[in-house]
Write a structure and sequence with these properties.
37% helix; eight-stranded parallel beta barrel; 3 domains; TIM Barrel; alpha/beta; 17 helices; M1 Pyruvate Kinase, Domain 3; Pyruvate Kinase, Chain: A, domain 1; elongated
Length: 474
Amino acid sequence: MAKKTHTNILATIGPSSGTKELLESLLDAGVDAFRMNFSHGTHAEHKERYQIIRKLEKEKGKYISILADMQGPKLRVGKFKNDKVLLKEGQAFTLDMNHALGDETRVCLPHKEIFMALRVGEELLVNDGNIVLTVDDCDQNHAKTIVKVGGYISSHKGVNLPDTQLNISAITPKDEEDLKFALKLGVDWIGLSFVQSGQDVIAAKKLIDGKASIISKIEKPSAIEDLDAIVQNSDAIMIARGDLGVECPIQQVPMLQRKIINTCRKYGKPVIVATQMLESMINTPMPTRAEVSDVANAVYEGVDAVMLSAETAAGKYPVEAVQMMKKVICEAENDPMYYANIEATLKRPRCAEMGESITFAASEIANVLNNVAAIVTYTTSGKTTLATARERPFHPIIAITPEVSVARKMALVWGTTSFVNKEPFKSFDKVQATAIKIATENNLAKSGEHLIVTAGIPFNKAGMTNMLQTILVP
């Protein structure tokens, strides 16, 4: 099993990684969490892979997060008569609600919400922004456009609207069916695609009803405008740089990435960087220098996880991609500048709650006291562990919880290793003994080292972190 690092790896499952043998190899290479992409695959395939992961979880003695990523309101053109046509710069091209096969003059865009929101002068980007159309005239059923940047357009290519706020839910009818299925399976996280506002997250929470946590994907300019509300209402954030880099000027993506990371750190929410991290490893056994630098920079910025998409879902070298990502993470985290970079970007608000002040104090004590092995957080909901991880302490975080679901979710949290202890505590002596036992048996502490322990009195009550103690491992 690969060495545990502060930064976690989230890997997407697909045809290249769906068997027990490959999933086990990915875990051994360093994967901490798996993503099931509901834009692809059948419910039967997702169920089979889910069951394999849960079996591997028991075999490996390691809690694993599973993310069900919803497709969301992906906007696409209809079909063309000859599958594709060439659009030339300056020509007229119409998008409409007519389901007839498209040609060089028009194609169906079966999304009434787009036509209701479009304004003259706004741009539509097709096929990841390779084709740019400027709206010349529009009503509720069609849009006449002028081709600003031409090229081949084919059936079912995606459409992005960087200038337009759409009155469209982040949860589509397809998502509702996928969501019911995923929640019945027991996934830990639900990924919301194309979130535009904090209200989108609130609406999704009502549907999910506490059965899973929410990862909101930031991929639209409107999401950046309402970023604080989205982060505050979400359980975690994914920086989905694919569509974000289409809808926003691509040169702004690094700046937006840093802004999103800092906002997540401010509110103590896990943040994942995704898309094209080791893209060339879909087809080659080695990444580019730029890709390696991209992964390392995300680690230096203190993200909770980095994600592999097609590299593990459909690539030729899924295990090698994870191994390479793990090597880059280890190198970056061993750099003396790693913690200096993280500390320089830490956004620490004034502690509004007792629990937050306790976790801040635990991190500070761990960083100045000699011979500290780890910070131990007793948590029922995971909140105390998240608050500790926000401080980015120099030492590992051990999360002890009575809930298996919480232990699984913590697999995506920076620097955290989780353990389940269902036995209720009646005294702090028992708390100490359990912390020492778990830390020593799992080679996370040895005799003569200190553990910084946070807990709550009364014991086993959520939201009651009010105690901190340093204990010496005998």
